[in-house]
Amino acid sequence: MSRSYTPSPLGPVSIMPTVTVRVAACVFAAFALFPAVAHAGEFSVTDEKADTEISEVSRIYLDGQLVSTIKLNDMNRAKTVRIPTSTGRTEHSYTLCGEITIRTPEGRVETHEVSSDGVLHNPDGHRFYALGSNGFTDFYLLDPDSPETAEHRSGLSEACAAPIS
Known about the structure:
Blueprint lengths: L15 H18 L5 E10 L4 E10 L2 E8 L5 E9 L4 E13 L5 E13 L5 E7 L4 E5 L7 E4 L12
């Protein structure tokens, strides 16, 4: 069975402008309805597994919200994540929570919970490193090129709880 095509007396008809207008309207509506998702910028955090560690799991919270989980082991020794920041804010609270598993010189396996809280001052464009110190009792962010960008409070964060797996 064959069908015949009869051209429109008005000339060729295109649906593209209608589709384009609808897509543009949807995009505009999404930005108008969800302005909180607009991001001003971003910064990065790099975490590396120390040679004495078997594994490490780190969680990064920004302004009370979980923004990244980093899992390190012998197959994945380092990872850098990019973290977006919200529009209109230059000061951001952060919390680092982690579980670090090591093998002691005696051969025992130990897991240490580490954490801290701090504040990032205008972090956009900075590269921070997640660092541990004081025998697994302190865990914080530092930009070695701009140390004043991050401040932290020594000691365990009350916001961290061991993850349920």
